Amino acid sequence: MRVAILYNATAADATTAERDVLVQRDAVRAAVSTFASDVRSMPCSLDLATAGARLAEVDPTVVFNLVESLGGSDRLMSVVPALLDTLGHPYTGCGTEAIVLTTNKVLAKQQLRRAGLPTPAWLGSADGPTAVPGAQTVTSGMTYPCRVVIKTVWEHASYGLDDRSIVAVDDVEALTRQLVERERELGRPCFAEAFVDGREFNVSLVTTVAGAPDVLPVAEIDFSAFPPGKPRIVGTSAKWEPETFEYSHTPRCFEFAPDDAGLVAELAELSRRCWDLFGLRGYARVDFRVDTAGRPWILEVNANPCLSPDAGFAAAVDRAGLSYDTTIRQIVEGAVRRSDRQLKATPV
Fold it and tell me: What distance separates the 2 farthest-apart alpha carbons in the chain?
């Protein structure tokens, strides 16, 4: 079996978040090398012609797609699966349509709302920045006064998320001003989401041999060490800055009190429904907040979650009693089987 590991090229001055794909590349390569005879690592940039030519030269049995962004933007994440679809190369993870629908967080929320799945109210646009003159924002269920969290529409990995992202506003005009100001600061389109002040969970899923999603153990982020008044969020510092308070005081836990059994089951079921709604495959993660009344709210559906050994997906794999290497093999073999089925279904 020949496996090409495709990952986004990183600059010499890349941030810790951007360099994390190299950690994933090395971990996946080590795992794939336990069962594949030929493993190649291939950086991918906006030069898609070169990427296509290199893939044609290697002629891989399957491509392990680790590309999270191109040209410094997560907005272009879907370009790579689209390229692989066009060239006819089987690949791991979610398909082009699922990546498109979930990378844009506002578009994903619209899909969730239409399907009757719980997602917090929001204000923003799926099409472009609010700061552009004449831009039209769309509001869905926002009531005032309220507290909101301002997020980027396209970027993931807690990009630009910090304590200042949580703001209190009295009306839509005040919120729009905050949104425009944050967009100018970050240089990215943003939207505002009603802040759910409560608990935070994430649920990882992986395709089984039979093709159905297997829900891995539910994880909760422990904010118990946060002082009163500090927003309980997993921001940039908590994810990428080891020297900060947030990084060392946001552990994930898998132990739950008996009273949480119903909630854990509900989170698992909602994650399965997200899998079906967006046509996810291979592996994915769904992020939740749970309010003080115990009601879960879907924040994001991550169709290309981090596979670093210290990230949430790997932690859930370990908690399930599985090995990282075995799970990576399961993901690869699932992509090959899916390709074989598609070939058999194609009319001659």
Answer: 66
What is the C-alpha separation between 129 and 195, in angstroms, rounded? 20
Q: Residue 294: phi, psi to the nearest 5?
A: 85, 15
Share the mean pLDDT of the chain.
93
Q: How far apart are CA 283 and CA 219, in angstroms?
A: 16
How far apart (Å, rounded) are the C-alpha atoms in residues 278 and 303?
9
Q: How far, rounded to the nearest angstrom, does the alpha carbon of residue 95 sit from its chain's CA centroid?
A: 14
In the chain, where the domains are located: 2-93, 121-194, 198-333
- pLDDT tens digits, 93-104: 999 999 999 999
Average pLDDT, stretch 26-50?
97
Superfamily of domain 198-333: ATP-grasp fold, B domain (3.30.470.20)
Using the predicted structure, report yes or no on whether residue 127 has a pLDDT greater than 90.
Answer: no
| Token pair belonging to 294 | 């115990």
Whole-model pTM over 0.90: yes
| Burial annotation 267-302 (CB, 10 A radius, 16+ → b, else e) | bbebbbbbbebbebbbbbbbbbbbeeeeebbbbbbb
Token reading at 320: 């399930």
| 2-93 and 198-333 in the same fold | no
Residue 52: phi and psi, rounded to 5, are -65, -40
Alpha carbon distances (Å) from 150 to 45, 231, 261: 29, 13, 31
Amino acid (one-letter) located at 33: S
CATH topology of domain 2-93: Rossmann fold (3.40.50)
Structure tokens at 58: 């290697």
> Using an 8 Å Cβ cutoff, are 24 and 7 in contact?
yes
For residue range 269-319, list pLDDT tens digits in order: 999 999 999 999 999 999 999 999 999 999 999 999 999 999 999 999 999
Model confidence pLDDT, tens digit, residues 191-225:
999 999 999 999 999 998 777 899 999 999 999 99
